[in-house]
Amino acid sequence: MSGSGTTPVGRDASGAPPHGQDVAKGPDPLRARSRTAPAQDSPGSAEPRGESGEAGRPGRPGGHGGHGEDGEAGGPSRGSGSGSGESIIRRLSNWGSRLVLDDAPERVVAHLKSQILSQLGAARAGYGHPLGRRVRQAYGSPLQDDPQHAVHSLSMATVCLDFDDTAYAGHLSHSTVNVPLIYASSLGLDGRQLLTAVLAANETAARITAAATLGPFRGQTAGHTHLAGSVAGRLRAESASADDWAHALGMAFSVPTWSLSRGFFSTDAKLLVAAVPVRIGLSACDGARFGLTGPEDVLEHPQGFLHRFADIPLPEEAVAGLGTLWHTETFSYKIHPGSAYTSAAVDCAVELHHALEGVDHRDIAEVVVRGSIFTAGLDRIARQHRIGPDSSVAALNFSLPYNVATALLTGSLLPADLAHPAVDRPDRWELAARVRTEHDPALSRHALLATAPLGQALRRAGERAEAWVRAIDARAAETLPPAWLEPETDFRWATKNLGARVTVRLRDGRELHAERRGAVGAASGADGTDHAALARAKFLACGGDPEAADLVARLEHLRPDDVRRLVRLALAGPDDAPTSRPSAETPVARDVRDTRKDTAMETAALEEAYTGLIDAATAAAPGDEASAPPSGERDADWTLAHVALSDRLLASTARQVLAGDAAGLDNGPAMDPKAIGELTSSAGRDVLVELVRRNAAELVGLLAQTPDNRRATPVSVRLVGDKGEELFSGAVPWGEIVRLRAEDHIPGHTGRLRRIAGAPQET
Known about the structure:
Shape: globular
Distance between the termini: 41 Å
C-alpha cells in the first residue's frame, strides 16, 4: 500500500481527474491507484463447484448471489440497480417511506438508542472542546430556531473530534441522528417517530454508501453518506411520500461532494465533510416538497453517481435484504476520540499503562505497533504531515504515535488530550517519536474477513475484488479470503476486526505486550458487546445529564414534549435557555406496553448455542492446527466444515418451511468426506470460522422470519453417517429439528472444539 494518499482516482471518460485535482483519501488507506476497474460481471456469475457437487461456492450448496428484499437469489443488474426494473432510489424510497419501527427486531432498536446516546456524547465532547466552541460561535447553537442552521452546526461539532461511531458502511450519525434530532422539536415527533426516522436514515444512507465503498471515498470522506442520511432522516420524520423521497435523493445525488485530502487530514476544513452534504440534502428536501424534480436513476446511470464515485459499483448492496439485513446492527462504538484504525492500538496502550507504573518515559526504548493494512496505511499517510503541539485536531486524530503515547503515559485518551495544555506536554512527543508501526498480515487477514470496514463489499464484488485490492497493495491482496465466500445475509453477528499488537521495549531489555483482535466497542460477532452500557458511559463522561440518558433508554415511550426535553437536556450549552423540568402532573414517559408483535419462532436458545460455538471456534483458531484431537474425536477443521455445511442445508429447509413448500432435509452433503475435504483444503481455519458465523446468522435470520405456527411443519428427514450408512429416515416436526440443533447438536460440537483446544500437542 504505497502511495501518498492523494492518488488520482475517479477519472471521467477522458481520463482526466475532475477539476484538475487529486482526490482525497480519507482515513482509510485502501485506495485505488487508477480508474481502471476489473470486469464488471456479477460476483455470482462464474462460481466454482461446491462440495455437494452442484454449481455453487464452498459451504453454499447450489450457490447463489446475495438475497434481495424478495428473498430471491441473485442481485440487481448494474444497469438498472434492481431486478424489478425500478431504480435503486425508487426501491429505497418506496421501502423507507413506509418503514415503521415495528418492522425492526428489538436488537436493532437497541442499537438505535445506543447510537443516539453515543452521538449525543460526541456532540457534547465536540462543543466542549475549543474547536467546537469556535464552531458554536461561527454557526450558532444546535438549539437555534432555524433547523437547517442548527443541523449544520451540530454536524461540525460531532465530526470535529472523530468521536463518532461507525457502521459497516459509513459514519452515519452526523446526518442520520442529527437531522431527526433537530427536526424532532419543530415537527413534534414522539419517541417512536424519532427512532423510525433514524432507522430509515441509517438504512438508506448505509446502503448507498456500501454501493460505492470500493472507490476513493470511505469513512468520513464519504460525504455522500449524508446526502442520503439527511434526505431520508428528514422526509421520514415528515412522513413524506415516496415521490418526494425519490426526487430529493435524485437532486441531492446529482451534486455530490468531492473531498480533497489537502484540507481533510491537516486542517479544520474537515469540519465541512458532513455539514455541507447535509445542507445539500435538506435543500433538496425543500425543493422536492414543492415540486422540484431529480433523476431517479442518478445512482446507477452510466453518467451517474456510482460510475463516478466507485471503482467497482455494487448496486446490489443498496437493495439487498431490505427488511431483513439491518445495517444499523453493524455499528461499532468508540470509547476514545480518533480514527477507528487506531482504536485497538490505543486500547492496548491503555492496558499497558498499568504495567508501566513507575517506569519513566525515558526508560522506554521504543514502542512497536503491529496492525492491519488499515492501521499501517493510515500511519504512513499521517506521517506525511508535520504533526506537533500546534497541529490541527484533525492531524492529531490521525496521529497513531501521539495517541498511543498519550494512552501509555496517562492510561486514557480523552477529548482534552486533543487541546492545550495537554498537547504541549513534551513527554508525549518524546515518546511519540519512538513509536513505529509495522504491517501484520495476520491482522490484515482478520480485518478483511470481517464484515466491516470492507469485508462485506469485497464479498459482494467476488472475483473482481482481488484485482481491485492488488492494484492498491499486493500485500493486501495476499491476505484476501477466497473469492467464493459469499456476502452476509444477516448482520446480527457482524464483525469489525481492526486489531493491534503493541510491544513496549524498555532500555533494560524487558518487553511488555498487549494484543486485541478488535477495539473495545467494535462489532465483534456472536460474543457481542454491551453497547448500551458503553454509550451511556461515554455520554456521562462527556458531561451529559443522567436524566437525558434515562430518557433515551425509554425513547420508544416518550411523548413529543418529552422528546423536546431530551434534545434540550442533551444539547444545551451555557448560553442556551435552561430546560424546565416536567411537572408531577406530566409524566416523562407513557406507561404503555410495547406494541411490537412477536409471532415468529423463538431463536434465543439457538443463538446462545451458536454464541458458544463461535466463541470456542474463535479461541481455537490461531495456530491450533498442530493440536491433536482427543482419541476418537474429529479435528477442529472437520467440525467447522461439517457445521458450516449442515447450516447451509438447514437454511435451505428453513426457506421451504417459510414458503409453505414441502420440506426435506438430507444431511448427506454435510457428512460426505469428499465435500468436507474439499472445503477444509480450500479454506484456512479463520475462513472456516467465518463461514460458520455467517451461515449460522443466515439460518437464525430465516427462523426469526418464520411464523411460530410453522414449528409443527413435517420435514422429511434422512440422516446418514460419515460412511454413507443411513441412520434415520422419517418425518420430524421442524420445531423439533431446531430444538435438537440448539440443545444437542451445536453444544456437542462446541464441547468438541473446547476439548480439542485443550488437548496437548503431540510430540
